[in-house]
Amino acid sequence: MRPRKLHIPIPLILALASAALGRAFEDLERHVEERVLSNGMKFIVLERHEAPVVSFHTYADVGSVNESYGITGISHLLEHLAFKGTKIIGTTDYEAESEILAKLDSIYAELSRERRKGPEADSGRLALLKDAFERALREAKGYVINNDFFDIFMKAGGTGVNAYTGADATHYVCSLPSNKVELWMAVESDRFLNPVFREFYEEKEVVMEERRLRIETRPAGRLYEEFLAVAFKAHPYHHPVIGYMSDIEAITRQDVEDYFEKYYIPSNMVVAIVGDVDAEEVFEMAKTYFGRIPSGPKPEPVRTLEPPQQGERRVTVEAEAQPLLYVGYHCPPTYPHPEDLAFRAIANILGEGRTSRLYKRLVKEARVATAVYAWNGFPGYKFPNLFVIYAIPSKGHTAEDCLKLIDEEIEGMRSEPVSEDELNKFKRNFKKNWLDAMKSNSGMARVLAQAEVLMGDWRLLFRMLEDVDMVTSEDVQLVAEKYLIKKNRTVAELISRK
User: Fold this and answer.
1) Cα(60)–Cα(170) distance, integer angstroms
2) Which of 96, 151, 187, 226 has the greatest CB tally within 10 Å of its CB?
3) Of all helices (H) and strands (E), which one includes residue 177?
């Protein structure tokens, strides 16, 4: 006799799965420990003993949003320079090197003053100063041990040694064998205690070349920059992370040192460590090494608020390139803002994956686009930001063709509640994505550090995973009705030049 199949209702399956996940998250949360050093620096540690490795994530609460005109791009430039070493790393003789670095800055200041005279500049004096500057550069290079910072970690078995800068923060990451924790402590703390911004002028050239490649020679990059500039009238989210070319050229080493002193202080940094460690030993080592860094008051937060938008804004870029479309709606900051999870549901249902409404409508059915995506949290999560839809029109179609159908789908989102199937898919995907991030030590370190700063408490990460189950179709519709309106949006089009 064939056994009968057991039919379990979908809501019950979801409830059981949610309960199991809840227990797993509670167990995980209980194993996270934290300490705040006397200088204000916070360490978050999660012990995982499955393999003899450990991941480190240093989260500096400073990004392009903290920059002012004249020094845009300085957060990203500083991230580059943070790998150039310290008074004992990256140099053969710091005392001699420091003298030539001061000489370099003096010559460059004279050169800049002469160049600012424009047509009245003394060409002979310019030539002499350029020659002196080049000779000083070569002399300074003689003291540099190339890639010394990287090599220390790589020789110790390190992987993923990297850093990246965004609108909200600057991240420094690394994974090492678990018997190298003290090595990381010594090197990483020295990075922030005794930094030397050597090869400053060479690294500025590297960053300027990055800007040329990412923005100035790429129509899509130019559209991205124009979109940000128009969408944010007042808030510094309008600054591109890489900065404006004239600012990058003008930034001085003193600017970087002043910026570092203001933002790279213990109370403005969080470290998350996940892996095969003993938490108490980690905290004792942190006290020994990072406790050396002088304390200071946390920098004043960004003052400027983006005023409510009073009408649709449009910007176009013409180029010999494939058409592109950005549509951005102003939206609240990240969780725990009560509307954030509903916005994440909108992003998932409208434009995440091949089963999303926009993909089915624009790509599969109408074939007016080759790709379409939607996401919130652009260009950052810390402050009110943008919910963005991005589309690549297909051959023979324009951005306006895509926008017409996007408007129809948004109107559907505003006029009718989303289905329970769509909402449940979002909740499953949301939890899966977080679980995937938590599987690796590096991913877990990242989400713990980010949650601590962006949410105000890493524990809210686990509350969020519970609260997502509370999002209803009515919540989603109310948020869509409130924010997805034309006067609240910016439309940016890349138009093919004929």
Assistant:
1) 5
2) 187
3) strand 170-177
CATH number of this structure's domain 313-496 = 3.30.830.10
What is the total residue count of the chain? Answer: 498
**CA distance linking residue 435 with residue 219, whole number of Å:** 36
Strands (E), 366-476: 369-378, 385-393
Residue tagged 């989400």 (tokens): 447
User: What string of DSSP letters covers 280-291?
Assistant: HHHHHHHHHHGG
Tokens of 489: 């949006």
Per-residue confidence (pLDDT) for residue 12, from 0 to 100: 42
Is the pTM of the predicted complex or chain greater than 0.70?
A: yes
Give domain limits for the chain.
61-169+187-264+288-292, 313-496
* Rounded Cα distance, 333 and 382, in Å: 6
Is the domain 61-169+187-264+288-292 a CATH 3.30.830.10 member? yes
- What DSSP character marks residue 497? P
| Cα Rg of the chain (Å, integer) | 26
Give the whole-angstrom CA distance, residue 323 versus residue 151: 44
Same fold? 61-169+187-264+288-292, 313-496: yes
Dihedrals φ, ψ of 197, to 5°?
-90, 65
The number of beta carbons lying within 10 Å of the beta carbon of residue 289 is 18
Q: Say if strands 313-319 and 489-496 run parallel, antiparallel, or are unpaired.
A: parallel
pLDDT digit string (tens) for 48-104? Answer: 999 999 999 999 999 999 999 999 999 999 999 999 999 999 999 999 999 999 999
Burial class (CB in 10 A: 0-12, 13-18, 19+), 159: middle
Strand partners, 388: 328, 375
User: H-type helices in 156-263, by residue range?
Assistant: 181-193, 200-211, 219-231, 245-250, 253-263
Segment-wise mean pLDDT, segments of 10 residues, the chain, 498 residues: 42 46 70 97 97 98 97 98 97 97 96 92 94 96 96 97 98 98 98 98 97 96 97 97 96 97 98 98 98 94 95 96 96 94 97 96 97 96 97 95 97 96 95 89 96 96 92 97 97 89
